[in-house]
């Protein structure tokens, strides 16, 4: 990913419970780009603008669908399928607010399962005025301030909390190598049926699927770190049943095999926001 410069910023303190990070990406070249993105389980808002003040992204495709005419500002769900973002051959900047997995519920008051894999346009999440303000802005600092103000207002008027589900998300994060739904149900003294229902409403996908997505993201982070000599070491560290199971999950959520990713390490990027490659 040498052609794209990434900057990851921490969220403001007032939104740190609902935002994972902010990520700015800038591309200065004039060649079209096809960026493959692994699902992270994190929803978010993206503002993407080309040098000519129009949208830089031509379309976004997953295995089951493709969305074209992407607006400069959009909100996306958590997603459990890998996607391909096709950028026009022009310099561009993107600002991405990466939400915590529960933030569509805690910031917007939504049943997150309705928006799992979807893209919402500004008129669908009350952001028409925000889009106008962003288009009139002249610096990333001003754009970030506008985005943060928008989310602070959403939090003030729509905030909901499911404290138990947020605690289970923290538990999953801390024990990603070994956690299971059975262990979560036992640790938090809740029936599996009730847990499945609440987790899916707040996070947007069933807990077993979210764990698989996050475990693959951890594997990608470990592979990118260079600390592991063999793919089998990564699979072992994450308690995969066997290497074929590990490879199958990696292909499901990242389009290509782990071996192919290691061969293309210079075109691979991983940070708090997730993993992607050209």
TrEMBL record:
Keywords: DNA-binding, Transcription, Transcription regulation
Every HTH araC/xylS-type domain range: 166-264
Membrane-spanning intervals of the chain: none
InterPro entries the record matches: AraC_XylS_family_regulators, DUF6597, HTH_AraC
PROSITE patterns: HTH_ARAC_FAMILY_2
Superkingdom of origin: Bacteria
Pfam families assigned: DUF6597, HTH_18
Official protein name in the record: Helix-turn-helix domain-containing protein
